[in-house]
Structures are given as C-alpha cells and as structure tokens.
Amino acid sequence: MTPAQEAAVAALQAEYAAVYLYGVVDAYASPARRGEIAKYAAEHRAQRDSLVSALGGAGVQVPVAAPAYTPPEPVTDPVSAAKVAAAVEDDSAAAYRSLLSKGDSDGLRHLGVTGLGAAAVRGARWRVALGVTPVTGPFPGIRS
Q: Which residue, among 138, 111, 129, 121, has the nearest Cα to 29 in the 3D structure?
C-alpha cells in the first residue's frame, strides 16, 4: 500500500470506531442530545462509506470493522458520554489530517479536508457542551 492508502485505511478505522462509539455515547447521553448524536453518527457512516468506496476503487482490500471498540474512558453518564464523543472527534480529525497531508489524489485530499473540517466542528460543539475552553486549537487534527 502507498502512504496515501495507509492514511485512508487509518481514517476508515477511525470511522469504524466513531460509528461504534457513538452508539455507546447515545446510550448514556442526555435525551436532549439524541438528535445531534444521530446526525453525527450518520455523518460518520457517510464518511466511512466514502472511504470504503475510495479504497475499493483503488483496488485496496478494505479492512472490516472490529467487533467492538473501547472508549478512551468509561462511559457512565451524560458528561462522560460527551467527553468520549469529543475524543472520538479528535481521533477522527487526526486521521483526516494525516489523509489530507498524504493524499496523492484529488479524491483522497477531498476526503481528508471534508473529514477534518467536519470532525473539528463536531469536536468543538462537544467541547462547548462540556464548557471546555478553548473549544478548538489553531490546527485541528494535530495533537499537542
């Protein structure tokens, strides 16, 4: 695999985890957030499907999702659910930043920039809900 394809696979794996973990988040989140969670999960499924299509179209064997993913911290209430959702978005942003920098085609770079932008916005919204400041860094997807 090329570095661009490896980055696309890493982004796909981040999407698999995001889709799964949003199910966990939904189970513990405030009922007022259910619509938002459903929207964000649908966005992750759409990105996942785009990555599967791009990888398959390039002749790359598409990895399957793991049976389960472990949240970065225990999810026991609405606050911990929101923290996990923010972490999911940070992981997604990092994966898409890598795809954007390693992408070797317009299609992969487009997936990288749209995925990075969407993850940064969703992550910022979760941090606003948590009362965390700043809500985003100057360069989303770069871990400090």
A: 129
What does the alpha-carbon distance between residue 93 and residue 120 come to, in Å, rounded to a whole number? 6
Query: What would the two tokens of residue 55 be?
Result: 């990888």
- DSSP character at residue 134: S
CA distance 80 to 87: 10
Identity of the amino acid at 13: Q
Structure tokens at 64: 């399957």
Give pLDDT tens digits for 48-104. Answer: 999 999 999 999 999 999 999 999 999 999 999 999 999 999 999 999 999 999 999
DSSP state letters, 64-96? PPPS----SS---SHHHHHHHHHHHHHHHHHHH
The torsion defined by the Cα of 55, 125, 90 and 134, in degrees rounded to 10, comes to: 150
